[in-house]
Amino acid sequence: MKKWVSGFCAAFSMYSTVPMPQVPWQADTMRYLFCFFPWVGLLIGGLCLGWAWLCRAWHAGEMLFAGGMTLLPLIVSGGIHLDGMVDTADALYSRRETEKKLEILKDPHVGAFGVIVCGGYLLASFALWGQLYTSPRLLVPCCAGFFLSRCCSAMAVVSFPAAKNSGLAHLFSGYADKKTVRICCGCYLAFAGGLLIWRFWWAGAAVLIGISLIFIVFWHLCKKQFGGITGDLAGFFLQMTELAVLAVCTFGGMLEW
């Protein structure tokens, strides 16, 4: 039981800004860390739904709603995944060989492409959330993306080969109980996916299909461009998945009109 509690505290300490008791960073602590990583997404999704409820109760406009929905995930996560997306953008757009791309991922400095992609991502997110405000029924499947993206990201880290013999992804994957993590995340995905399809039918199915396609494309990108996965790439995948789920729900809501 102590290992599970330590894994829970480590997951929230590493991937969120939620205050947690300090636990020693050792093998037992990291063994079940990824089993609780999706719970951070569950918290973010719940907070976003709470913000949506408050905005409707206060009769707030689309811009205030969209601003809160764009910022809340960054506040709770501390921007750790957005940082990975920025580094990945710099590496991909460098169009260099694999070794150079991996060096760029390690570089703490932000390049022009990273800034451009980050700005575009936040602008797209803000615009899509503002549009989705007119389709409140689809807020639940959209917010489920925070949970589902982390399930898939955890599965990728413990299933894909590491691109290098260092870094957080290599460290966490090495110490993780991979079989248990896959079972946990697989059960999360099956339960959440079934619930989405049962309650929202086409929206739930579209979200799951979209995530599956992105996961396949991401696997090929990791293998071809980097030779495996890194922590930055996992963050990039997570952010892209969340944006894709948001786009699917937003444009799906527009088609319903």
Tell me what you see in this structure.
By secondary structure, this protein is an all-alpha fold. Helices cover 81% and strands 0% of the residues. It contains twelve helices and no strands. The longest helix is centred in the last third of the chain and has 26 residues, at 231-256. The N and C termini lie far apart (50 Å). The model has no long low-confidence stretch (mean pLDDT 92).
Tell me the layout of helices and strands.
Blueprint: H1 2-15, H2 27-31, H3 33-57, H4 62-77, H5 80-94, H6 98-106, H7 112-132, H8 139-159, H9 168-175, H10 178-200, H11 202-226, H12 231-256
Helix pairs in contact: 1-3, 3-4, 3-8, 3-10, 4-7, 5-6, 5-7, 5-12, 7-12, 8-10, 8-11, 8-12, 10-11, 11-12
